[in-house]
Write a structure and sequence with these properties.
This protein is mainly beta and 51 residues long. It has one domain. Helices cover 0% and strands 45% of the residues. The chain contains no helices and 4 strands. The protein has a 4-stranded mixed beta sheet, with no helix packed on it.
């Protein structure tokens, strides 16, 4: 299975870009990111995106 991660700017803040999207808060060893991860599918490929 292929999974894609995207780190982008304001152009990715439209959740309609991804099918079955959801936002998820995550913790890292360095603290919480400034925004939530958006998780969904694009052309049937799993995508994690952060703006």
């Amino acid at each position: 299975m292929v999974k894609i991660g995207v780190i982008g700017g304001s152009g990715l803040d439209d959740p309609k870009l991804l099918e079955n999207h959801e936002e998820k808060e995550v913790d890292t060893p360095y603290g919480r990111p400034s925004s939530k991860l958006t998780i969904g599918k694009l052309n049937n490929v799993d995508v994690d995106a952060r703006t």
